[in-house]
């Protein structure tokens, strides 16, 4: 028996049906007039593929997680804040909002609910939503939302390349260009453990990785900076 979830306003009118199987019955997504209809259909018992949201492409490993996610598109707001009674479409959105009550991140963006430690950081963030670009290059007139974006842009005019690859010494203008370059070295990530040589895609994942090593394995003079596969001269 199929399980019906709320109708969702369609973003297009052409007929379509897409099914993504996993171990439990996947969702069958169809169009009826101006709405999506979502129901579970039987899938082969041997499948273990992930499921994807047809509307936004987000990936899930569990059928229940996808069904909960679809409530966001349906406009269902079943999660209520016990402090102010505001409602939210997901548990993640509610958790993010709760930071505004803890005092740790008291400044909340009215556009997306993200919370920040101080008002100036919130002000900078809100420019993503408003499109405001107060920082202008005096060389070419190009405008930017954030000050550091303007500072990085200036290097186009000065020719400065402060990022250097430790593997081949090639220089790059900014961090993202350096990360792109590092991948040319057999897909290298920007951080490499000096103990077991494992690569990590971010600084936080490297810090988490290091906790897996025993204290006696880590040299006395070890620093997180030693895991960087690039040098930065700014």
In brief:
The chain contains six helices and 17 strands. The protein has 234 residues and is α+β, with helices and mostly antiparallel strands. Strands 1-4-3-2 form a four-stranded antiparallel sheet. It has a three-stranded antiparallel sheet with strand order 14-13-17. Strands 5-6 form a two-stranded antiparallel ribbon.
Task: Please describe what this structure looks like.
With 234 residues, the chain is of the alpha+beta class. It has 3 domains: 67 residues, no CATH class; 52 residues, Double Stranded RNA Binding Domain; 53 residues, Double Stranded RNA Binding Domain (2-Layer Sandwich). It contains 6 helices and 17 strands. The strands form 7 sheets. A 4-stranded antiparallel sheet has the order 1-4-3-2. A hairpin with a 2-residue loop joins strand 3 and strand 4. The protein is globular and about 55 Å long. 10% of the residues are buried. The N terminus is likely disordered. GO terms for molecular function: DNA-binding transcription factor activity, RNA polymerase II-specific; RNA polymerase II cis-regulatory region sequence-specific DNA binding; zinc ion binding. InterPro entries: Ovo-like, Znf_C2H2_sf, Znf_C2H2_type. It is found in: Nucleus. Pathway: Protein modification; protein ubiquitination. Belongs to the krueppel C2H2-type zinc-finger protein family.
């Amino acid at each position: 028996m199929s399980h019906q979830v709320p109708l969702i306003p369609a973003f297009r009118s052409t007929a379509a049906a897409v099914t993504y199987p996993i171990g439990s019955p996947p969702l069958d997504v169809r169009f009826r007039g101006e709405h999506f209809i979502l129901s579970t259909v039987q899938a082969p018992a041997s499948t273990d593929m992930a499921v994807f949201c047809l509307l936004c492409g987000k990936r899930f490993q569990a059928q229940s997680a996808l069904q909960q996610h679809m409530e966001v598109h349906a406009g269902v707001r079943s999660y209520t804040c016990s402090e102010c009674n505001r409602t939210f479409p997901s548990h993640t959105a509610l958790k993010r909002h709760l930071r505004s009550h803890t005092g740790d991140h008291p400044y909340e963006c009215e556009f997306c609910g993200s919370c920040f430690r101080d008002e100036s950081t919130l002000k900078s963030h809100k420019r993503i939503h408003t499109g405001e670009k107060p920082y202008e290059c005096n060389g070419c007139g190009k405008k930017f939302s954030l000050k550091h974006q303007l500072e990085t842009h200036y290097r186009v005019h000065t020719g400065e390349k402060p990022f250097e690859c430790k593997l081949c010494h090639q220089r790059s203008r900014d961090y993202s260009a350096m990360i792109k370059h590092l991948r040319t070295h057999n897909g290298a990530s920007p951080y490499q453990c000096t103990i077991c040589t494992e690569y990590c895609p971010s600084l936080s994942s490297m810090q988490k990785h290091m906790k897996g090593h025993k204290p006696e394995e880590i040299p006395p003079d070890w620093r997180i900076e030693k895991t960087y596969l690039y040098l930065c001269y700014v």
